[in-house]
Amino acid sequence: MSATTPAPHGDRPGRIMAGEMAEQPAVLRRILGEGAPRIREVAERIAARDPRFVLLTARGTSDNAALYAKYLSEILLGKPCGLTSMSTTTAYGARQDLTDCLVVTVSQSGGSPDLVASTRAAREAGAVTLAVTNNPDSPLAEVSEFHIDILAGPEKALPATKTYTAELLSLSLLVDGLRGGEGGAFGTAAKVLPDLAESILARQDEVRRLAARYRFAERMVVTSRGYGYPTAKEAALKLMETSYIPTLSYSGADLLHGPLAMVDHLTPVIAIVTDGKGGRALQPVLDRVRERGADLVVVGPEQQVAEAAAGFVLPTENVPEELQPILEILPLQMLAYEVAIARGQDPDVPRALAKVTETR
Question: Cβ–Cβ contacts within 10 Å for residue 120, how many?
Answer without folding.
Answer: 17
